[in-house]
């Protein structure tokens, strides 16, 4: 999407965590609206700012002063929930090319309420519940965005769901239907099937008759992905997913969605049936820890999939690349997809799965949660989560981790006892 927004205003010198910034524009200071301006000047709002590339601590909470004012074609939105994406983790490490120079407020999707209209905006009203899509800058309590980057939410949709829908479902939809041309009785391999895009893809596959869905995920998530609609869950961490898939379908699959890159793209291509389609849309293999790993970058580059035009002709397969961040000027294309998705949502055919919600103050924990592969579905950030809810959230996180450790200890004990008995 174009960047004539509040997001672009982030490209400013760094600020201290507690230091406030003036966000109001001088031209807004008109004597006729003195009272409003005074109120606006007293406003403060939270913003999550990436100040340098690196670990979880590089995204910091800033308190900004003044109310951003929408310019021509923009609306001011009070943000209630924000979606976290894998790309935000890559951005933190300096591996995402769609960001301006630092410091910058991260976040490419959110949901909230329209508070003010800029000049010329006729398609939105104050009080509208909207979802917002932008290249960056949406992890803020207040954002100014072009009105055509906002989408009206159905009344029954929660802000958390609204913040979880756009990036994941647009991506999955365009891969499966625009590129993949998914048809009844076909088969699909969905990598990262328990994640945000993975969950969306599985639900969308289920809207087509008799589609066989192979889904890779950590073993502990298999029950969840089965419930979501995966026909054959595969534990890619302890088994070779190619072998596992071929045991069930010797000929392979019709579509592979590849968010991994590196050597996995080649494996995915080889898994295609004749006339099959591979859609490459990510490079998750680049992420091996908190910080950028040059070894992983080199390995991925060295193992990169490459094919000549003649080889492609002989293969009878299609290879496509998809990047939503590079479709930001394609407003009509995206709007049509969103309308289709909202129709599916209202009919109960798709429903974003919320894994967890974190207050802005715990953005580091939220990033760690996603990167340590603990999520099933979407991770959401809340700008103003009530204190009690935030504390409960933190305690539940600690309890979940403790439960996991206890379960692992119990498993290890059983294994040790079994070994002892064998000996
Ligand atoms: N091109 C585009 O326009 C576009 C748009 C959206 C997303 N994407 C891509 O789609 C993929 C999924 O994105 P998402 O936002 O929905 O995230 P997500 O799937 O929720 O990401 C987290 C999950 O990915 C799995 N995973 C696999 N490799 C991982 C790694 N190296 N580090 C951490 N987790 C890893 C883990 O699940 P398991 O435990 O099950 O392995 C983890 O729980 C990413 O590659 C992303 O870049 C691309």
Structure write-up:
Helices cover 35% and strands 22% of the residues. With 423 residues, it is an alpha/beta fold. Strands 3, 5, 6, 7, 8, 15 and 16 form a seven-stranded mixed beta sheet that branches. It has a six-stranded parallel beta sheet with strand order 11-10-9-12-13-14, with helices on both faces. The protein has a three-stranded antiparallel beta sheet with strand order 2-1-4. Residues 1-20 and 22-29 have low confidence and may be disordered. It binds NADP nicotinamide-adenine-dinucleotide phosphate. Residues 85-87, 167-168, 171, 192, 194-198, 217-218, 221, 259, 281-282, 284, 287, 322-325, 370-371, 373, 375 line the site of NADP nicotinamide-adenine-dinucleotide phosphate.
CA distance, first residue to last residue:
64 Å
Low-confidence stretches: 1-20, 22-29
Query: Which structural class best describes the helix and strand composition?
Result: alpha/beta
The DSSP helix count reads: 12
Topology:
Layout: H1 34-42, E1 44-50, E2 59-65, E3 74-84, H2 86-93, E4 104-105, E5 109-117, E6 129-133, E7 142-146, E8 150-152, H3 159-179, E9 187-190, H4 196-205, E10 212-216, H5 222-228, E11 232-234, H6 241-248, E12 253-258, H7 263-270, E13 272-280, H8 294-302, H9 309-315, E14 318-321, H10 331-346, E15 354-359, H11 363-371, E16 378-382, H12 387-422
Parallel strand pairs: 9-10, 9-12, 10-11, 12-13, 13-14, 15-16
Antiparallel strand pairs: 1-2, 1-4, 3-5, 3-7, 3-16, 5-6, 6-8
The structure holds NADP nicotinamide-adenine-dinucleotide phosphate.
